[in-house]
Design brief:
Oligomer: single chain
Helix content: 40-55%
Strand order of the largest sheet: 6-5-4-10-11
CATH class of one domain: Mainly Alpha
Strand content: 5-15%
Mean pLDDT: 92
Largest sheet: 5 strands, parallel
CATH superfamily of one domain: Isoleucyl-tRNA Synthetase, Domain 1
Distance between the termini: 34 Å
Length: 561
């Protein structure tokens, strides 16, 4: 039940005021002894022509208190105290009746959201830095879908650009066919790094790479054949990662897919008088918007990713007619997206305002940044393998008799890695520490998974004698836990409003912490029926909320640990 709505409606009846306007004024008091909800009566003083404390006293005397333990005035505030038993029973009943659907809403019904995320470059390793966009984007995708939006997950592959001309040139000069068949990505990375090493000694190689890319753009058979082969090998490698992470996309469409539409879009930009020449390149000047020029065509006539992103956005609007299109791409690309969105706006596309860049900070692993060009990359599969292996060691130490150790280790290892990218504000830099990631204490996925497993172990020990019993929960720990369960949608909607999954991640941590306080202070084994059944139902509801919440983050629960 939405108690804020109930309060707003009762206040509206008493004061002849709009309930919707009152709803947004209702607060959560800073201390539990001040009530569960509070309404500041300052907002009513002008219309009622009374001092706020007098309004609070009058409303406290006349307010319908059904569903509340009491309603009382405290200075200019009207404070509402929930009936703990009734409230807890209502929340638990709702969670258990809806089960896996608890938290699903229809606020997005009839609306379409596109989420572009992951987007690796073909012919390069899926390195650990890509885990940020992949985890963040997938969490947003899942949360939007749970709100009833028609949600489209797009993997915008980096499969075009001068770097592929360089790679084609490198393969022609130094490629090893046998090595390519044995380990495609390793071989492609080797020759890509070698190209840049050799180009420092012989700058003419850069021009050879640009020539190869122009040939690719014009559809030359040799370059097209190699490019298609590199792409197929890369997609096979990427799919292994996505299978491990349990991630699927609705669209797997790379930059090259838009190449045929580029001339038409460039001509449209020119026809609208937006193109200028700058040092041989064709650009859109953005000085008056405090941005450098957006390059549309380079001086050699080849396209650039700005042009391809503009073309992709136009294609997506025509194809999907989206309400919003999110780009989950690192914050260093903020200027690029500002330029792209501004050019689209100048072209006359009103929907450019619906394009949102969801940026995020850098990832540091052992003090290193990741550079494919220099070869010091850390494969994501290696990291996941290490996380799973370390989780297996921890399980062996803590519970050597546990069945399905490999499955549990996989869920803990992968869940821990995903969670580290989601638990803090996305603009913050991540310092990746595998020991912290897999800790069972603190703000980690294993802590939440362990909380879930702990609750399930209690439920296995004590059978539920009265499944229908949900009344009688009066203890502080019970009430605080129930209030957390009730915040599911509030936290999710705030996360989506800010494009910030960490808001929801913090909420799931709060549920786990509230449960552990309950677990440490309430002895279910010594509780008599029917109160024991009510407490067991609270555990069931907690398990459901944790499972549903982790699912939105793309993380599995663990039944035993």
């Amino acid at each position: 039940m939405d108690y804020k709505q109930l309060i707003a409606e009762r206040l509206a009846d008493q004061t002849n005021t709009n309930a919707q306007a009152l709803y947004g004024l209702i607060e959560i008091p800073p201390r539990p002894e001040m009530g569960d909800y509070a309404f500041p009566c300052f907002a009513l003083a002008k219309n009622l022509r009374k001092a706020p404390p007098l309004i609070a006293q009058s409303l406290a005397a006349s307010m319908d208190a059904q569903g509340f333990e009491k309603v009382e005035a405290l200075g200019p505030y009207l404070n509402f105290f929930l009936n703990k038993s009734e409230y807890s029973a209502a929340v638990i009943s709702q969670v258990l009746s809806q089960g896996p659907d608890y938290g699903n809403e229809d606020s997005g019904h009839g609306k379409k959201i596109l989420v572009e995320y992951s987007s690796p470059n073909i012919a390069k390793p899926f390195n650990v830095a890509l885990m940020y966009t992949t985890s963040l984007g997938n969490a947003l995708y899942r949360m939007y879908r749970s709100e009833g939006y028609d949600t489209v997950g797009i993997n915008h592959l980096g499969d075009y650009g001068t770097q592929f001309g360089k790679l084609i040139c490198a393969y022609r000069l130094w490629g090893d066919e046998e090595a390519l068949q044995a380990d495609p990505i390793k071989e492609l990375l080797r020759i890509y790094v070698k190209f840049h090493e050799e180009a420092e000694k012989d700058p003419s190689l850069d021009e050879a790479g640009r020539t190869a890319f122009r040939n690719l753009e014009s559809g030359a058979p040799y370059e097209m054949g190699l490019w298609n082969r590199f792409k197929e090998l890369s997609l096979e490698d990427f799919q292994k990662v996505y299978d491990l992470l349990d991630i699927r996309f609705d669209s797997l469409k790379g930059e090259a897919s838009y190449s045929e539409s580029l001339p038409e879009v460039i001509e449209e930009i020119r026809a609208k008088g937006l193109l200028s020449e700058s040092q041989g390149a064709q650009v859109v000047l953005l000085d008056e918007y405090n941005m450098p020029p957006a390059i549309i065509l380079k001086s050699d006539g080849s396209s650039i990713y700005c042009t391809r992103d503009i073309t992709a956005a136009i294609y997506r609007k025509k194809t999907y007619d989206f309400d919003k299109c999110l780009y989950v791409v690192g914050s260093p690309q903020a200027l690029h997206f500002r330029q792209v969105f501004k050019v689209l706006e100048l072209m006359g596309f009103e929907w450019a305002k619906d394009l949102i860049h969801v940026g995020f900070g850098l990832v540091k692993f052992q003090g290193m940044k990741f550079s494919t060009r220099q070869g010091n990359v850390f494969y994501l599969t290696d990291l996941l393998d290490q996380a799973i292996a370390r989780a297996r060691e921890i399980i062996e130490e803590k519970n050597p008799e546990l069945p399905n150790k490999d499955e549990v280790a996989r869920k803990i290892g992968i869940g821990g890695v995903k969670f580290i990218y989601l638990k803090n504000s996305r603009e913050k830099e991540i310092l990746f520490d595998l020991n912290e990631v897999l800790s069972f204490d603190g703000e980690t996925a294993p802590y939440i998974q362990y909380t879930y497993a702990r609750a399930r172990s209690v439920l296995r020990r004590f059978p539920l004698a009265h499944p229908e019993e949900m009344n009688g929960l009066q203890e502080k720990e019970e009430f605080e836990l129930t209030k957390e369960l009730d915040r599911f949608n509030e936290a999710k909607q705030e996360a989506l409003a800010r494009y910030e999954p960490s808001v929801f991640t913090r909420y799931i941590l709060d549920v786990a912490k509230a449960f552990n306080k309950f677990y440490n202070n309430i002895n279910i084994g010594n509780t008599e029926e029917p109160l024991r059944s009510a407490r067991l139902n609270l555990l069931l509801a907690t398990c459901q909320v944790l499972a549903n919440g982790l699912n939105l983050l793309g993380i599995d629960v663990v039944e035993q640990m």
